[in-house]
Amino acid sequence: MHTLFRNSRRKISQGLLFWREAGKGIPVIFLHGAWKDSSQWLSVMETLSENFHCFAPDLLGFGESENPNVHYSIDLQVECIAEFLQALKLEKVYLVGHSLGAWIAASYALKYADQVYGLVLLAPEGVEIERQENSWQKMQKLMRYPPLALKLLRLLRPLAKRLAWYEKFEQDLQLRHLLLRYPTACKLLFQRQHQEIKIELLQDKLHLIEVPALILQGGQETSDILAKSQIYAQSIPQAEFKMIAHAGDDLPESYTGFVAGDIQDFIKGHG
Questions:
Q1: How far apart are CA 226 and CA 169, in angstroms?
Q2: Going from the N-terminus, what domains does the chain have, and what CATH number goes with each?
Q3: Percentage helix, strand, coil, to 5, in the chain?
Q4: Where is each AB hydrolase-1 domain found (predicted)?
Q5: How far apart are the first and last CA of the chain?
Q6: How far apart are CA 14 and CA 260, in angstroms?
Q7: DSSP secondary structure letters along 90-154
Q8: Cα gap 191→209, rounded to integer Å
Q9: Closest CA to 32 of 71, 65, 5
């Protein structure tokens, strides 16, 4: 199937928002993950656009959307999506989110329940688990590596390869490279004040979500990510949990057929 995607931009109060759009019918909003942009959803949208009107915005500070000099928060992203939907005159939608996008989608449903038919959340962020603080501290430490030390270690790479800690260092270096590509995700997930992030976490609020939800999780993900999905599934009153056993952390891109089929079944089951 060949799908015609429409790329658009709209000025909202915080900056210019870019989105991809295809299809017609019931509106479905796709919110991308922390280390992605809206292109993450292209394959899923292509499959679903025959039956649904699909929209995938780049979150503010990501992709082709503007990156203004503002204080980023989950609530800011929620308000940007609210303004986006208002501008497009979309009164009620399904929200589909992956990772950070799922956190934003769930937060939106808590704040604007009357505008949401239902939620599909893939490997959602936004709840606290054991070892969470250790993970935050590790990410913050990676971002604070002194540039001079990194340069010196790279110069010493031929010698360092013989040392036991070198493989771990290379993994950390690759992770840091990814983090630097997505500065807004870093600000949202671990570069704000710890207390500010904790206030926006949802583990004590999920029971207030009034709309049906489907939680999708790859079976090959880490135990921490699985634990977060289980908190969502156990806390949202109308939640269904589904595991895609052989899937990893790239559900929308590599398991398009499974994800699109589950989204379609969910919407048809609650339409």
A1: 26
A2: 6-128+201-270 (3.40.50.1820), 132-186 (no CATH)
A3: 50, 20, 35
A4: 27-249
A5: 25
A6: 32
A7: --SEEEEEETHHHHHHHHHHHH-GGGEEEEEEES------TTHHHHHHHHHHHHT--HHHHHHHH
A8: 27
A9: 65
Q: Which residues of 195-221 are buried (b: 16+ CB within 10 A; e: fewer)?
A: eebeebbbeeebeebebbbbbbbbeeb
Instruction: Identify the three-state secondary structure at position 39.
Output: helix
User: Which H helix or E strand runs over 211?
Assistant: none
Confidence of residue 107 (pLDDT cuts 50, 70, 90): very high
Q: Report pTM.
A: 0.90
Which amino acid appears at position 218 of this protein?
G
What is d(CA 201, CA 197) in angstroms, rounded to the nearest whole number? Answer: 7
Taking only the tens place, the pLDDT of each residue in 49-65 is 999 999 999 999 999 99
Confidence at residue 160, expressed as pLDDT on a 0 to 100 scale? 58
